[in-house]
Amino acid sequence: MAGLGVNVDHVATVRQARGTDEPDPVWGAVEAELGGADCITFHLREDRRHINDRDARLLHETVAVKLNMEMAIADEIVDIAIGLCPRQCTLVPEERQELTTEGGLDVVRHQDRISRAVARLHRAGIVVSAFIEPLADQLQASADSGFQAVELWTGAYADAKSPERRDEALAELKSAIELGHRIGLEVHGGHGLTYRNIGPVASLPGFCEFNIGHSIVSRAIFVGLREAVREMKRLITLHAPAG
Ligand code: PXP
């Protein structure tokens, strides 16, 4: 069954809205773990919009489950990741104006630069994953660049405006998972996944990890983060493919 990675960036976003020290994403990570999270994910952005260097350091010191650092391929951030040495780094595109990560990394276009960053992270013993759209050329380029894993962008599925488009997006994800496994990649999924739409994605065989942020932190406002994580885990378990 796929594990649940809880993205704690949004806890830091609320803190930054007032420029104080609460709520603390490090405390958020503890609550998420107590709710059953299999992985804690954070994104140390170049602009430090939410998670900052202190958070990254303390998360690394305190998180007991898998720690997944989302990051751009900027040299400064790669240096920090190598110093920190989280279990996994997920390389994502980063734009200054975006509300959240929009779409996947273009591994085909930036293969040389990306391969160099992947090689440096590997040498530090870090598992490296590429956040990509579920497209055959991006999967193949990810394998060729040395990634051990990919996180498939589930945004097309989450944003689908019709049942037909949603089914198409699910079929694309299914083919991408199958290709990923054929070429030796571990396959994760994330972006826009919610309590309402997780079912059909969690039913697809072959996903190893889901990374979910906004929906869980939104629900936490009403039920608390521990319970919000518990509920999402329950849904993933309920819909997990047999076997
Ligand atoms: N995976 C990646 C690579 C992301 O960049 C994000 C957004 O930070 C997520 C998953 C989580 O997306 P959401 O907040 O929509 O659940």
Helix tally equals 11
Portion of residues in helices? 40-55%
| Morphology | globular
The ligands bound in this entry are: pyridoxine-5'-phosphate
Mean pLDDT metric: 96
Taking all Cα atoms into account, the compactness measure Rg is: 17 Å
Fraction in beta strands: 15-25%
Task: State the domain count.
Answer: 1
Strand arrangement across the biggest beta sheet? 1-2-3-4-5-6-7-8
What descriptors fit this protein?
TIM Barrel; 16% strand; 11 helices; 243 residues; alpha/beta; 8 strands; binds pyridoxine-5'-phosphate; eight-stranded parallel barrel; globular
Report on this structure.
β3, α4 and β4 form a beta-alpha-beta unit. The protein contains 11 helices and 8 strands. The model has no long low-confidence stretch (mean pLDDT 96). The site of pyridoxine-5'-phosphate (PXP) has 19 residues, from β8 and α10.
List the helices and strands and how they pair.
Layout: E1 3-7, H1 9-18, H2 25-34, E2 39-43, H3 53-62, E3 66-71, H4 75-84, E4 88-91, H5 111-123, E5 127-132, H6 136-144, E6 149-153, H7 155-158, H8 163-182, E7 186-190, H9 198-202, E8 209-212, H10 214-223, H11 225-239
Parallel strand pairs: 1-2, 1-8, 2-3, 3-4, 4-5, 5-6, 6-7, 7-8
Helix pairs in contact: 2-3, 2-11, 10-11
The structure holds pyridoxine-5'-phosphate.
Pyridoxine-5'-phosphate binds at residues 7, 9, 43, 70, 90, 92, 100-101, 131, 151, 190-193, 211-215.
